[in-house]
Description:
The chain contains 10 helices and 14 strands. A hairpin with a 5-residue loop joins strand 13 and strand 14. The longest helix has 12 residues. The mean pLDDT is 96.
Amino acid sequence: MAYILEDEFGDIIQKARSGRGLSVAQVARETQIPRGQLSKMENYTLKPTAERVEKIAAALGLSTPKLLDIAMERWAPTKWDVNFDSAITVIPLSMTLRSGYSVYCYLLTCKRTKASVIVDTGGNPDKVIEAVNEHNLKPSLILITHEHSDHAGGLRKLQVVTQAQVIASAAVALPSEVKECTKLEDSAEIELGDLSIKILHTPGHTRGSCCYYVSKAVFVGDTIFAGSVGRGGFSYQSLLQSVRDKIFTLDDDVHLFPGHGPITTVGQEKAHNPFF
């Protein structure tokens, strides 16, 4: 069975190493693992021993038991139940980019009123429009978690076709072609039928990264993945603190819908994510 996590052991240690500003050579010296073998671990061509996982985790500030479970492919989040929430319906849309890289965007609907929104573009507005029409939805909002092309690419076309209002963090830097965008401060709320969606500023992956919290769901973009986090392109430490302050303070049964990889929950990430 293929391992389903977005990030393998090599991705995790590379993100933690670069986030802490360390070179492969520095980690090699700290762990007494040959530099070439460490590079092979990052590139998925050499599986680590338990002893080496322990050394690497200590050098990179990661949780040894959690990292070991992922290195040995012993953990993945439980499969989510599409009926997990009585108030909302979530439809994941999986997109494959030209690079072969996969990304998720989402359709979110209030069950009682049928009010709907789009979360991110998946870099493929045509497929999003096709899904909107297939499910007979009339989205009033497009929620953007951050400005990277796999999440906001094609936003102008999606905006024009759906006539939906674009929502993003106050700190986001969207492409100039997006003419109208409502930028919200942290904890601001917007309506979805009977419900309220709260924007959570989570800087780290980018300066303007944010998440959207509604009912028992959070759409987290590239802030956190099952068993990992996004790259700390803006600030690695800010990214980790954003997760601690904005995500891990929510109830354990809140579902996390990431931009990449499987759906997970707050409780599962507290128990299994090696970055925490």
